[in-house]
Amino acid sequence: MRCSLTTFVTLSLAVASLARPALSPYNVHEKRSAIPAGWSHTRRHESAATIPLRIALKQNNLEFIDEYLHDVSHPKSSNYGKHWSAGEIARKFSPSEESISTVRDWLVENGLASERIRVSSTKGWINVDVTVEEAERLMNTEYNVYTHVSGQEHVACEAYHLPEQISAHVDFVLPSVSFDTKLKRRSGSPSEPAHSLGQPGVGITPKTTGTISQLVTELEQCDEYITPICLRALYGLVYEPVSTDINSYGIVEYTPQAYLQSDLQMFAMNYSTDLIGKEPVMVSIDGGYAQTEYQGFDYNGESDLDLQYGMTLVTGKQNVTLYQTGDMVEGASFNNFLDAIDGSYCTFEGGDDYSVDSEYPDPYGGGYEGPEDCGTVTPAYVISTSYGYNEADLTPFYAERQCAEYAKLGLMGVTILYSSGDDGVAGNGDYCLNPDGTQTANGTIFNPTFPGVCPYVTSVGATMVKPGASVLDAQPEMACMEVIYSGGGFSNYFTMPSYQKTAVDYYLENYPPNYPASIWNSTGMSRALPDIAANGANYVVAVDGEFELVYGTSCSSPVSGAIFTMINDARLAAGKSPIGFINPTIYSTDFAGAFNDITEGSNPGCGTEGYNATVGWDPVTGLGTLNFPVLLEKWLALP
Ligand SMILES: *[C@@H]1O[C@H](CO)[C@@H](O)[C@H](O)[C@H]1NC(C)=O
Ligand SMILES: *[C@@H]1O[C@H](CO)[C@@H](O)[C@H](O)[C@H]1NC(C)=O
Ligand SMILES: *[C@@H]1O[C@H](CO)[C@@H](O)[C@H](O)[C@H]1NC(C)=O
Ligand SMILES: *[C@@H]1O[C@H](CO)[C@@H](O)[C@H](O)[C@H]1NC(C)=O
Ligand SMILES: *[C@@H]1O[C@H](CO)[C@@H](O)[C@H](O)[C@H]1NC(C)=O
């Protein structure tokens, strides 16, 4: 039985290969399940029409990226801290000559003259103008014209096929199944700021409970008002930087969110005299600027918070770079920022997806008309971002492509921090997942945050000082349960990185969450977050000329970034490399005791109490908050 089956398979393969010598069988390469809302099928595309076929080639060596990163980031590795240059990264991962020639030969064999075939300068794409008839034959597909309710047309197919041997070298082909046409704006003045498309994490600005008028008597009231001195006391951050001419710290903001210099100066007068007269060093990306036309907590709260605390904690001696990203019209997404700090990312695995990312120069006019920033900006050693998507907002392909970029930045020695979200186990806006993958307020499935789920970023959750506690107590903090809940949980897209296995296994064995497997990823095999935490409640922030109380993991990320920047300062002063991708280090046994373990509180959401903060790592506060003196000593002991 078994024998005859084998014979049958071998025989049919032999026949197939005789009939079509160069080709393996065609497989479905990409397929769409439904036409997106608002679009309808209009007609078959004219067979003589020309379409610019763009074939995105697979990156080389991407399957080894985890290994490469571990090699320079694990404290026990002999190559610890030996980061790569941008050029080394571009060379290592650009598509292989074999991919280029295999795909080119296939096109030629199918009757496309070789002079019609162009390879992009980055070697990421093969471009060829073909007729619809040629494309349909090449990829065993049918091209259709679809019409949007607005009247706009789009050419796409339902599915396409590639020979198995070509498939291995190709990521995807455009145009094909994606409806990545960005819809033209139909009404509204172009000076209205873009809030929807292209802006990551709409609706997750930090929360405020209003303004403060009375004088804050600082250290005694840290359970009600967090000011810089409270954070210094909590995390032992007493340090005067000495490497400021070579060190760097970057904070990313997305226009129309913008800081006000008058707020920074108001904060400086009361809490940070160091910053009097000081500004962040602004780097504009894709037309970004610190706009002042639109003001209010929703426009200034995030940026004011990030800069007032980020700049104060690194002291006035250390410059902080403000990456102001996106114009007022299109806005921007994380990919637009990543394009600017890594030129090879602009076309990596095909480039941006304009259904999520913004396109520059603005194709519709009225916005930033300059060229897209592509490799124009040098990344700082530590980059903090307090914006986020829900993992489920993005396709796995999109999330993986961006996640690989964070790994590359780690290879270059950059520490990437993202806040873990403010809705506990629920997603932005308190949305939870339904079994069909949609997100609604009445969904019941836990909804983790992106990019925190990416194993190559450090995800930062939130704590608070327990009511009535003093920052001088042994452990005054618990998981944040005022106004916001610390984001945390388990990814449905990314598998568990090796660095956190021991810590997360310990949690799952000793404190198994008593929830049905249908509402959380209980496989024990997925990326768990957050990695660390920092205070995220009751921050006194100057916003629009008044001191307000602010809450969120939005506070936790820039504060952690400032602390890591001071550790880099000491390492640079000792002639060592920056700390780079920290996760393999912070979870290692060498770093046991470098965190203040948070063991109280939880992160409710989706109609549940969420997870508990426990002894050791937990999906609410990660490994705990930073203990600066211990971290400094341990990091200085590393090569
Ligand atoms: C800030 O400083 C001013 C001037 O010293 C003082 O009147 C005000 O109460 C302070 N505000 C806070 C919230 O500390
Ligand atoms: C800090 O930034 C200011 C303003 O851009 C610049 O003049 C100064 O040289 C910078 N300092 C260092 C140490 O880089
Ligand atoms: C959940 O909310 C959606 C709208 O967001 C609604 O259509 C649906 O009926 C609700 N489902 C239940 C079970 O209440
Ligand atoms: C749970 O996570 C794993 C690893 O990331 C993934 O393969 C699996 O599909 C996830 N389960 C669900 C139900 O999404
Ligand atoms: C959290 O702790 C409480 C009290 O010990 C317990 O009843 C609950 O089951 C725990 N929740 C989870 C998800 O482990």
TrEMBL record:
Ca(2+) binds at residues 597-598, 616, 618. PROSITE patterns: SEDOLISIN. SUPFAM superfamilies: Protease propeptides/inhibitors (SSF54897), Subtilisin-like (SSF52743). GO terms for biological process: proteolysis. Binds 1 Ca(2+) ion per subunit. The active site is at residues 302, 306, 554. The keyword Hydrolase applies. It is found in: Secreted, Extracellular space. Its EC number is 3.4.14.10. Keywords: Calcium, Glycoprotein, Hydrolase, Metal-binding, Protease, Secreted, Serine protease, Signal, Virulence, Zymogen. This is tripeptidyl-peptidase II. Its cofactor is Ca(2+). The keyword Glycoprotein applies. Residues 184-204 are annotated as: Disordered. Residues 1-19 form the signal peptide. GO terms for molecular function: metal ion binding; serine-type endopeptidase activity; tripeptidyl-peptidase activity. It comes from the Eukaryota. GO terms for cellular component: extracellular region. It catalyses: Release of an N-terminal tripeptide from a polypeptide. Residues 225-638 form the Peptidase S53 domain. Secreted tripeptidyl-peptidase which degrades proteins at acidic pHs and is involved in virulence.
